[in-house]
Design the sequence.
């Protein structure tokens, strides 16, 4: 038979087998005849199940790019996931997604994914089989004293968390460290102490004034997409006013009607001064407050507060005026308020404002009681990181399972975690990528991507109706040596002979069974199969959390008289919507997406105020050296007026030593030079409390920024009208 | 070909000759972008990368202005806040954000300069680019006052999607090669599939059915997309589209280099409309409480 393709053969191949010919076309030898090539040729007349050739079909799942738990609709065509969109059924994101969610496909298709299990032999990692890997785990954990085992993870919830707990308990350990560098642990503690609910619902859509102390709720705080959806309503007539008080302009600050720069650590003073101004106009507002709180409020008159915070007194008057006139309002506090040694007291001072203004129960609502506590989110901050480092240093741990978190990257250098980890005999990384922590592991288990795996998720912040978010695979796994997290957990549980897991062949079967076992009130009379199908179709399962009531308990708290150190520079390790805590540095789309404020791409930078720049003798693009007691980093500066002169902001996310071709060796990691100060009441890392010295240094590579002009040069590209014009033309009649 | 077809074609030809600039539009796709709601988060831009097979060019090429972001967020600081330090120490009203994608001008300055008619106007009112016809003269990009045309200086497909990233590429549109100009299409492939579906169901395209990736994902729904033609045709029974309502409410009309608004306080405006490019994207001014 001739090996030449004549015209007739070619037409036969094309007509006969659209899939084979077009998809595999590039790899096929050009001289294959129909007869020889027939095994590669599959006719579209016999499509795979649920595949309509040429038509994209949308399936529901859940976004795992941050812990907010947004619902997804993934467009699947010919077995490939092509595009992610928000799931309109999800009360979290209501059909919308942020840029990190959009880029979920690049996590999934990332060229630097781990494709097979590896074990440490000598100094390097060498491939092993799954059976070998699992039996290694079994041999290392058998006979282990229970408390010498620990989980170290990021936020986990749902049935995966149930399996993790079951495994931990089967070994007899109580240790599960949960670490998130972008967290609200301090505020959660304040919420618990003052409102009796660690994570109440916030109603931006109902508020007429939002006063935010460093809470970047449109960018990196709690549930950014949900907050943005509510923000859109907030900005409709009657239009709400947004005031942002913080040392470095966040994305939310960039959208504020009034952005107030305060000296790092003085947010609480600003809050108390606003309370003072409110009570000056209407003393009855302080009725019912304990004496201590009244004294605190009385301590900061406008003049004094202005001197301490560096904010203009007019702004304090203006903000208190807005709050007095427009009700209800909402006062929130985020990273820059929490991240000091007196962070708890600062957040308490902002919550005191909510109590004075009567916002509790109006814009701050109870989240009720989640009926399945075993599925609820285990979330955390940096206290667990510090505790973990201590436990490791004290040689209390022999086996640690890492999942999600990358502590070797996020831990400050002074914690010495990287060196201390050598004291742990057996480190297992459940990971998709070779990040800094995975690189140190003794056993690396390559995981399915979130778009290949099963799961259920309960976000720590449940806005409005609470939901269990469903994660279902949107396509076949790309690599046959990767496995689903739930599947691996079931294998391990079976090896542990833990009761109740032997019947499940895989995690899918376990989930099916778990949903069948859900109470009838959730099923609305549907059969188990119907219920499962409807949940998969919707992607979310709403659960009733009942009515709850918030308390308004003014706790005993105090602030240092002057919490700021004037003249000292403070390092602000800022969070970006995009890079997040550095977990998205390996996504090319997000590296090339300019930072919203500085418009820098593919790099780190340092934000400084023009006054600081003048002192240092630098301009935008020049390099500076930032030195703390525990190290030095260098970065090019971006000079602008969105930062307090005492603050130096360096965004988190870059400075990876590993983590693939797009992340490695790019920029600097400000977390590395943080001092080990801790917040006084919660033990969280005071991540905004590091004092630094700054000096000019020789030129690094040029910083790459989008856009050529910082202003519009008088052209009407963006025009601005005042809110009263808006009220006149578009306000409610 | 029937006689009636010939006569119809002839009269259309005559009308085109007699009323200069007459187009027999099926749709006129347009946008209204509310800068009171836009938060500058960049979700639209990344959604566009995902939908339209846009290559990542990397740091070096980005620094030369070769980034391929069809949809981008521009950020400006208030002018009195820069310039002179004595005016204000801080950017106290935040930033000015604007999403900029092809303005789909009806009198597009890019179109008449193309030596090979690779860029032309479709019966949908879109400013289209025919990649196969483009010879890369870059005259169009030179003539776009918005700088919203993007040239493939390299064969990005060679290294922008290392395997298996290329599996994400959208098969509904091509990956462009070196020497070709490209730009925002209002996600013409999404419009196309919606039109096909409507045609199969024998019904008009419903408002909100066609949705470009940017408008779909916008967390604050600041981007509203739809058919502007519903405004001009009183005979159809179809309800007015949301975007048309917004244009009318803000007294912005197509075909005018200067809007003669009864209420000059209304926020609607088009960027650089004084150049008589007649863009199909209307912005609503940013709002700040002072």
Sequence:
């Amino acid at each position: 038979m001739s090996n030449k393709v004549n015209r007739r053969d070619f037409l036969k191949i094309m007509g006969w087998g659209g899939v084979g010919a077009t998809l595999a076309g590039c790899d096929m030898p050009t001289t294959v005849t129909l007869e020889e090539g027939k095994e590669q040729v599959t006719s579209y007349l016999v499509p795979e199940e649920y595949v309509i050739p040429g038509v994209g079909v949308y399936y529901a799942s859940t976004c795992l790019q941050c812990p907010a738990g947004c619902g997804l609709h993934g467009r699947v065509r010919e077995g490939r996931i092509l595009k992610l969109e928000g799931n309109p059924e999800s009360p979290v994101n209501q059909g919308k997604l942020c840029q990190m969610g959009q880029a979920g496909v690049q996590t999934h298709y990332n060229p630097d994914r781990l494709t097979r299990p590896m074990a440490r032999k000598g100094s390097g990692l060498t491939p092993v089989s799954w059976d070998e890997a699992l039996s290694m785990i079994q041999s290392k954990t058998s006979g282990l004293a229970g408390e010498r085992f620990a989980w170290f993870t990021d936020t986990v919830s749902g049935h995966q968390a149930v399996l993790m707990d079951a495994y931990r308990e089967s070994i007899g350990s109580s240790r599960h460290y949960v670490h998130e560098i972008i967290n609200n642990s301090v505020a959660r503690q304040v919420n618990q102490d003052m409102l009796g609910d660690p994570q109440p619902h916030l109603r931006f859509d109902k508020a007429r004034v939002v006063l935010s102390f460093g809470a970047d709720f449109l960018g990196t705080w709690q549930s950014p997409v949900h907050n943005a959806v509510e923000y859109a309503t907030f900005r409709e007539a009657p239009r709400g006013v947004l005031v942002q008080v913080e040392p470095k302009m966040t994305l939310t600050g960039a959208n504020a009607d009034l952005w107030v720069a305060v000296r790092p650590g003085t947010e609480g003073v600003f809050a108390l001064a606003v309370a003072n101004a409110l009570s000056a106009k209407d003393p009855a507002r302080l009725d019912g407050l304990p004496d201590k709180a009244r004294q605190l409020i009385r301590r900061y008159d406008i003049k004094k507060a202005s001197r301490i915070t560096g904010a203009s007194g007019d702004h304090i008057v203006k903000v208190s005026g807005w709050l007095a006139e427009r009700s209800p309002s909402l006062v929130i506090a985020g990273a820059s308020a929490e991240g000091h040694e007196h962070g708890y007291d600062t957040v308490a001072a902002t919550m005191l404002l909510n109590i004075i203004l009567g916002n509790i129960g109006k814009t701050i609502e109870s989240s009720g009681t989640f009926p399945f506590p075993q599925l609820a989110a285990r979330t955390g901050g940096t206290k667990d990181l510090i505790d973990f480092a201590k436990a490791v240093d004290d040689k209390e741990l022999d086996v640690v399972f890492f999942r999600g978190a990358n502590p070797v990257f996020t831990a400050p250098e002074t914690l010495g975690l990287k060196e201390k980890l050598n004291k742990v005999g057996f480190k297992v990384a459940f990971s998709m990528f070779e990040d800094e922590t995975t690189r140190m592991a003794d056993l690396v288990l390559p995981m399915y991507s979130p778009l290949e795996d099963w799961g259920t998720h309960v976000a720590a912040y449940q806005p409005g109706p609470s939901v269990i978010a469903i994660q279902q695979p949107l396509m076949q796994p790309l690599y046959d040596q990767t496995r689903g997290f739930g599947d691996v957990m079931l294998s391990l549980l079976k090896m542990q002979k833990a009761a109740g897991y032997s019947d499940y062949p895989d995690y899918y079967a376990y989930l099916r069974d778990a949903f069948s076992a859900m109470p009838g009130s959730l099923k609305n009379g549907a059969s188990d199969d119907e219920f499962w199908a409807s949940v998969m179709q919707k992607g979310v399962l709403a659960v009733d959390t009942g009515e709850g009531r918030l308390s308004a308990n003014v706790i005993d708290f105090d602030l240092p008289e002057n919490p700021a150190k004037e003249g000292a520079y403070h390092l602000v390790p800022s969070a970006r919507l995009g890079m997040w805590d550095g977990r998205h540095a390996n996504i090319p789309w997000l590296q090339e997406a300019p930072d919203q404020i500085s418009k820098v791409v593919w790099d780190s930078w340092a934000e400084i105020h023009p006054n600081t720049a003048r002192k240092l003798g630098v301009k935008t693009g020049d390099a500076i050296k930032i030195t703390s007691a525990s190290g030095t980093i260098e970065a090019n500066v971006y000079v602008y007026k969105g930062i307090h002169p005492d603050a130096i902001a360096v965004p988190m996310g870059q400075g990876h030593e590993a983590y693939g071709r797009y992340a490695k060796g790019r920029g600097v990691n400000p977390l590395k030079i943080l001092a080990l100060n801790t917040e006084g009441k919660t033990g969280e890392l005071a991540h905004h409390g590091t004092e630094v010295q700054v000096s000019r240094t020789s030129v690094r590579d040029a910083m790459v920024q989008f856009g050529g002009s910082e202003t519009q040069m008088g052209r009407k590209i963006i025009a601005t009208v005042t809110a009263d014009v808006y009220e006149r033309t578009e306000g409610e009649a | 070909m029937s006689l009636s077809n010939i006569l119809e074609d002839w009269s259309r030809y005559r009308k085109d000759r007699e009323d200069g600039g007459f187009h027999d539009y099926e749709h006129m796709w347009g946008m209204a972008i509310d800068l009171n709601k836009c938060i500058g988060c960049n979700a639209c831009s990344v959604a566009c990368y995902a939908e339209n097979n846009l290559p990542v060019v990397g740091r070096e090429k980005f620094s030369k202005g070769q980034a391929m972001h069809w949809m981008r967020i521009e950020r400006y600081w208030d002018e009195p806040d820069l310039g002179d330090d004595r005016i204000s120490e801080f950017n106290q009203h935040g930033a000015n954000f604007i999403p900029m994608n092809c303005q789909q001008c009806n009198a597009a300055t890019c179109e008449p300069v193309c030596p090979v008619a690779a860029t032309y106007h479709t019966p949908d009112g879109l400013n289209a680019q025919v990649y196969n016809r483009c010879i890369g003269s870059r005259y169009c990009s030179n003539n776009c006052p918005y700088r919203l045309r993007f040239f493939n200086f390299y064969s990005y497909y060679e290294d922008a999607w290392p395997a298996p990233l290329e599996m994400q590429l959208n098969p509904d549109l091509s990956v462009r090669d070196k020497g070709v100009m490209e730009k925002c299409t209002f996600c013409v492939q999404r419009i196309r599939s919606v039109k096909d579906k409507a045609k199969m169901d024998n019904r008009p395209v419903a408002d909100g059915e066609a949705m470009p990736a940017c408008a779909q994902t916008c967390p604050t729904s600041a981007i509203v997309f739809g058919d502007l033609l519903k405004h001009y045709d009183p005979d159809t029974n179809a309800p007015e589209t949301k975007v048309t309502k917004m244009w009318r409410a803000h007294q912005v009309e197509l075909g005018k280099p200067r809007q003669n608004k009864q209420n000059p306080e209304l926020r609607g405006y088009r960027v650089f409309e004084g150049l008589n490019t007649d863009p199909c994207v209307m912005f609503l001014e940013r709002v700040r409480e002072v």
Observations:
- The two ends of chain A are 84 Å apart (CA to CA).
- Chain A is about 30% helix and 15% strand.
